[in-house]
C-alpha cells in the first residue's frame, strides 16, 4: 500500500485506489462505503500533495460540485418551511434579474439543470469581480428553452445560492451550517477554511490563473471570484463529515427533511429527456453513469471536478463516498472516470440491504 494508508474493512477498494496513486491519478484518496447503519469499509491512502504530508484521516478535501446537492438540501429545507416555492421564478426571487430572460426560470428548472443556462462557462476570465460576474449571469445567453433538455449548469446553481440567501435571510455559509451541517454534527465542513483548517487541506491544482498550487482555497475559479462561497462549488469537508452526510441520506435524511420532501428531491424529474436528474442530484442513467452499472436504477449521487463523489442506492440502502485530488498537480487526464467505476463495482454482490 501507499504512504499514509489506513484501512478498515475489505482491501479491494484500497487496492484499486492504491493503483490509482501508482498511476499518478492523484496523490491521495479517502473512501467510505456502508449503509444507514454506518460504514463497513473506509480508509485513506497517500499524501496531501505529491511532496506533502501523509494523509491521517483528518484531511480537508475540496468537494467541488458535491457542493451542489448540499445547497440543494438547503433549498429543499427552505421550501419545506415555506420560505420559497419550487415553482418560484428567478425574477420573483431575485429582483436584480427581473428584467432579464432569466426571470422566468423556476427553482425546479435550476435544480434539474433544465433551465437552458449553459454550464462550464469560465466567466472569471471576463468578469473578475463578484458584482460583474453576477451581472454577467443576467446576460449569459440561454442555449435552450427551459424544460426541454438537461445541460449541466454551474451557473444555474450560482443563482440557486443567491435564491437561498434571499429566501433564508442569511449568507449561504450560515444556511448550510444551520440546515445541514449542524443537525448532522458536520463540524469540519464549510466554505473558505481558516488558517488552521488550511493546514489540513489536500492540494489541488497548480493553477495557471493564480500562478500557484491551490491548497485550502476553492479550486473552481468562478467560485473564487464569488468570494469562495457559492451555490455550485466551495465546500470543504473531511471524510468523517462526508460519511455522516452519506449515512443520513442512506437512511432517508430524516434529520434534514420530511420523508415526502426527501422523496420528492431524490425522485427522477427528467425522464423522457436526455439525462436523468433529480432535484440537485444526478440520477442513474442506463449508460454512462459515473459509477457504472453497480448501483441500482433508483440510485442518485453527484461527482466533483476535483475527484470527489457521493452516491446513494435506496434499493440496497448503500452509500459510497470517494475523495481524491485528481486535479493535482494538473487537471489534464480522465483516468478518474474508469477508476471511479472500478471503485464502485468492488463488492457489489455483497451490498447490504436497507435496515
Automatic annotation (TrEMBL):
Residues 21-336 form the Beta-lactamase-related domain. Pfam families: Beta-lactamase. One of its GO terms (molecular function) is hydrolase activity. It is an enzyme of class 3 (hydrolase). It comes from the Bacteria. SUPFAM superfamilies: beta-lactamase/transpeptidase-like. Coiled coil: none annotated. Its EC number is 3.1.1.103. Keywords: Hydrolase. InterPro entries: Beta-lactam-related, Beta-lactam/transpept-like, Diverse_Enzym_Activities. This is Serine hydrolase. It comes from Streptomyces silvae.
Amino acid at each position: 500500500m501507499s504512504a499514509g494508508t489506513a484501512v478498515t474493512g475489505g482491501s479491494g477498494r484500497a487496492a484499486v485506489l492504491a493503483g490509482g496513486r501508482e498511476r499518478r491519478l492523484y496523490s491521495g484518496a479517502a473512501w467510505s462505503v456502508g449503509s444507514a447503519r454506518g460504514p463497513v469499509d473506509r480508509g485513506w491512502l497517500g499524501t496531501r500533495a505529491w511532496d506533502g504530508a501523509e494523509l491521517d484521516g483528518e484531511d480537508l478535501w475540496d468537494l467541488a460540485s458535491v457542493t451542489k446537492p448540499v445547497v440543494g438540501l438547503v433549498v429543499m429545507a427552505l421550501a419545506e418551511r415555506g420560505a420559497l416555492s419550487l415553482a418560484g421564478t428567478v425574477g420573483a426571487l431575485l429582483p436584480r434579474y427581473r428584467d432579464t430572460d432569466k426571470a422566468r426560470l423556476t427553482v425546479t428548472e435550476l435544480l434539474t439543470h433544465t433551465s437552458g443556462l449553459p454550464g462550464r462557462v469560465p466567466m472569471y476570465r471576463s468578469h473578475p469581480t463578484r458584482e460583474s460576474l453576477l451581472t454577467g449571469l443576467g446576460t449569459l445567453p440561454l442555449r435552450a428553452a427551459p424544460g426541454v433538455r438537461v445541460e449541466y449548469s454551474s451557473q444555474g446553481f450560482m443563482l440557486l445560492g443567491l435564491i437561498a440567501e434571499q429566501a433564508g435571510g442569511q449568507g449561504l455559509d450560515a444556511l448550510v451550517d444551520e440546515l445541514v451541517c449542524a443537525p448532522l454534527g458536520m463540524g469540519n465542513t464549510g466554505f473558505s477554511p481558516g488558517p488552521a483548517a488550511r493546514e489540513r487541506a489536500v492540494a489541488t491544482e497548480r493553477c495557471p490563473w493564480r500562478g500557484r498550487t491551490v491548497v485550502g482555497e476553492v479550486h473552481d475559479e468562478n467560485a473564487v471570484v464569488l468570494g469562495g462561497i457559492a451555490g455550485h462549488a466551495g465546500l470543504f469537508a473531511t471524510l468523517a463529515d462526508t460519511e455522516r452526510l452519506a449515512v443520513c441520506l442512506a437512511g432517508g435524511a430524516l434529520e434534514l427533511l420530511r420523508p415526502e420532501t426527501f422523496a420528492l428531491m431524490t425522485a427522477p424529474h427528467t425522464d423522457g429527456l436526455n439525462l436523468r436528474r433529480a432535484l440537485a442530484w444526478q440520477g442513474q442513467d442506463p449508460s454512462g453513469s459515473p459509477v457504472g452499472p453497480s448501483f441500482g436504477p433508483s440510485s442518485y449521487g453527484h461527482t466533483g471536478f476535483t475527484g470527489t463523489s457521493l452516491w446513494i442506492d435506496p434499493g440496497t440502502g448503500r452509500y459510497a463516498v470517494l475523495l481524491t485530488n485528481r486535479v493535482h498537480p494538473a487537471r489534464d487526464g480522465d483516468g478518474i472516470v474508469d477508476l471511479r467505476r472500478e471503485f464502485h463495482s468492488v463488492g457489489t454482490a455483497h451490498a447490504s440491504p436497507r435496515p
